[in-house]
Q: What sequence folds into this?
């Protein structure tokens, strides 16, 4: 008995220690005591359960789950369901956690709370919303504010990712979390200005909360505000204020927040601002999106957007293989998604393989008819870039759901007109008009109520008529104009067009129709005649008409003053102009084309140039001095010197003389140029 009493007393003491440590939050010390108990009694259910709780509190989720799985006979699902599901949830085994919760025989409040979290991570927002509503309705404890926050987060996610218009939950935005979630919901609806105001309100709430705490540094405050500032920068980016957004994004990155999800989103948004510019910065930012644990912090659509941007960045940096690899991986994950195949096609186009790009897009359109319209629009764009406008038109006309759209009709008509294929352009108009005649309707209890003469339909008929008139198809235009006039007999503009068209084809019919035009007496035109007469255009016309009338009267009467002729300016004459000397008749011809041109004399210059050192004179230097030659004609006066020519001189002035000494003057100038070209002695 004494031997039995010893272990029992020891176990009791250990349990007291476990209880005391648990109340103090010292789970590491409690774990040591629990391990001692299990050494005495290894299958003690309470001790095993306490050990699992201590491990969870210390963050050792793997070890805790291992103990649960190795003691399944003792730790049944009824006893340990919540702890097992929580460990799986924290280890990001979300599907396993869901199965564990659903397999539990009794759904406790703790399991319901965890169930809501699991549904949120699985992005099953409708089920999650129902779960939290049930919890709020049937729970009354100190965690009500947290449940409302989670509920608002679900509504924000629905608005952002599923584009569901959120209902008013009537939540009082008394905390920064509720304000932040409300702002996210508004962003999803596109109400950016309202969302910014909510974020500013959330910022004030958070600042007030942090200031009330002790030992909080400015860096701690900035780190806490980072998520709000990140959302503000996102709104600025959506509003087109990219410089402001970029500045705020970079400020957040400099703070080095611990939230890898926030960093990844900001880095991705900076890459989207950079696009194909500042590629080096984008390559650095991509590293932030590859941080460990990012995939558990972001939604599927966020992760997908990051992968798309990685593929585009690889294309911009000419990493063709990497681009193909990433886009192929994305396509395998989401076969029906458009972006992967569009990125692949863009990469092929960069490699000048347009035919392969078109073939790739055609294959995708055949496999996914639901997305064929957008793909075919891209194919048509590629064909236009190649100069195959007719083939582009054929592709566009194969998109049945867009054939009747005014934008598509306008594009096709423009393209066919560019190719001078007027028949095909008219055919496009005809098909669109027929579609509206037969199929444009409103659904009323499953039946079709035909409304063939909608405003769009009438607009198409009018455009078709104008096009046919422009290209000389008057008879075809007449039928369209008659149709329009029947719809609105009071439309004077259409009637005038119809009369104009008939006047070229059937004048008698035009006369008959002209009777339907309103008389000038019945037309009440609210026109200010005085203002019209005093307008600039009317004044100009009146003045011109007055001039014409005056000229006619002068011609008829043969009287009046002769119209003044403009005086021609006298041309400037040379300074040495002599009216007695006959000008050279060939002075306007180039020198080579004149009759007295003899060409340049080669070799003479070399014979005349004195030989010896620079600066020395030779015997022939006096012969080279043109000023000493009596027969040489005078050159043009140098600046600063007077060119004195006597009145009785027989020398011909420079402008009128034949350039007998022109060759000698040219040679002298060339010699001067050559001497000046030498650099140094």
A:
């Amino acid at each position: 008995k004494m031997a039995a009493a010893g272990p029992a007393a020891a176990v009791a003491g250990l349990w007291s220690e476990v209880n005391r440590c648990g109340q103090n939050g010292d789970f590491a010390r409690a774990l040591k005591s629990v391990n001692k108990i299990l050494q005495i009694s290894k299958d003690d259910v309470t001790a095993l359960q306490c050990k699992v709780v201590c491990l969870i509190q210390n963050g050792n989720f793997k070890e805790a789950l291992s103990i649960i799985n190795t003691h399944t006979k003792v730790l049944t699902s009824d006893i340990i369901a919540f702890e097992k599901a929580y460990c799986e949830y924290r280890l990001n085994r979300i599907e396993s956690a869901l199965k564990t919760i659903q397999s539990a025989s009794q759904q406790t409040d703790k399991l319901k709370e965890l169930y809501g979290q699991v549904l949120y991570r699985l992005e099953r927002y409708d089920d999650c919303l129902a779960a939290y509503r049930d919890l709020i309705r049937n729970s009354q404890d100190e965690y009500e504010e947290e449940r409302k926050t989670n509920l608002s987060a679900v509504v924000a996610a629905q608005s952002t990712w599923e584009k569901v218009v959120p209902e008013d939950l009537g939540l009082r935005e008394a905390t920064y979390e509720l304000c932040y979630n409300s702002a996210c919901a508004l962003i999803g609806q596109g109400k950016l200005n309202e969302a910014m105001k909510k974020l500013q309100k959330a910022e004030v709430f958070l600042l007030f909360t942090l200031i009330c705490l002790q030992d909080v540094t400015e860096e701690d405050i900035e780190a806490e505000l980072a998520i709000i500032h990140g959302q503000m920068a996102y709104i600025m980016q959506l509003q087109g204020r990219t410089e402001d957004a970029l500045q705020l994004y970079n400020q957040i990155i400099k703070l080095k927040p611990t939230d890898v999800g926030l960093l990844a989103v900001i880095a991705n948004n900076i890459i989207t601002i950079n696009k194909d510019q500042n590629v080096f910065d984008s390559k650095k930012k991509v590293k932030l999106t590859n941080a460990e644990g990012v995939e558990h912090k972001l939604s599927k659509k966020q992760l997908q957007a990051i992968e798309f941007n990685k593929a585009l960045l690889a294309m911009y940096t000419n990493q063709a293989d990497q681009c193909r690899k990433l886009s192929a991986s994305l396509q395998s994950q989401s076969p029906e998604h458009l972006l992967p195949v569009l990125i692949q096609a863009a990469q092929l186009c960069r490699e000048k393989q347009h035919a392969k790009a078109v073939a790739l897009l055609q294959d995708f359109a055949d496999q996914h008819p639901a997305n064929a319209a957008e793909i075919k629009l891209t194919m048509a764009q590629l064909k236009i870039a190649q100069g195959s406008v007719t083939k582009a038109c054929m592709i566009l006309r194969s998109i049945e759901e867009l054939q009747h759209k005014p934008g598509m009709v306008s594009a096709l008509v423009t393209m066919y007109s560019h190719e001078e294929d007027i028949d095909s352009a008219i055919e496009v108009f005809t098909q669109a008009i027929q579609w509206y005649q037969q199929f444009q309707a409103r659904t009323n209890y499953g039946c079709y109520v035909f409304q063939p003469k909608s405003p769009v339909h009438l607009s198409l008929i009018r455009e078709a008529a104008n096009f046919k008139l422009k290209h000389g198809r008057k008879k075809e235009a007449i039928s369209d104009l008659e149709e329009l006039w029947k719809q609105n007999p009071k439309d004077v503009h259409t009637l005038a067009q119809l009369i104009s068209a008939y006047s070229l084809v059937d004048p008698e019919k035009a006369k008959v129709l002209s009777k339907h035009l309103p008389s000038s007496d019945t037309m009440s035109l609210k026109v200010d005649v005085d203002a019209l007469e005093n307008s600039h255009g009317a004044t100009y016309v009146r003045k011109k008409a007055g001039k014409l009338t005056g000229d006619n009267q002068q011609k008829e009467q043969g009287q009046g003053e002769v119209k003044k002729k403009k005086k021609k300016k006298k041309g400037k004459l040379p300074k040495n102009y002599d009216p007695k000397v006959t000008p050279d008749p060939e002075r306007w011809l180039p020198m080579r084309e004149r009759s007295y041109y003899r060409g340049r004399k080669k070799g003479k210059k070399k014979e005349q140039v004195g030989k010896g050192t620079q600066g020395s004179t030779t015997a022939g230097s006096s012969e080279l001095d043109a000023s000493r030659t009596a027969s040489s004609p005078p050159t043009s006066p140098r600046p600063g010197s007077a060119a004195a020519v006597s009145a009785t001189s027989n020398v011909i002035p420079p402008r009128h003389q034949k350039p007998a000494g022109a060759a000698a003057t040219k040679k002298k100038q060339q010699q001067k140029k050559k001497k000046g070209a030498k650099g140094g002695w």
Summary: Residues 2-24 form the longest helix (23 residues).
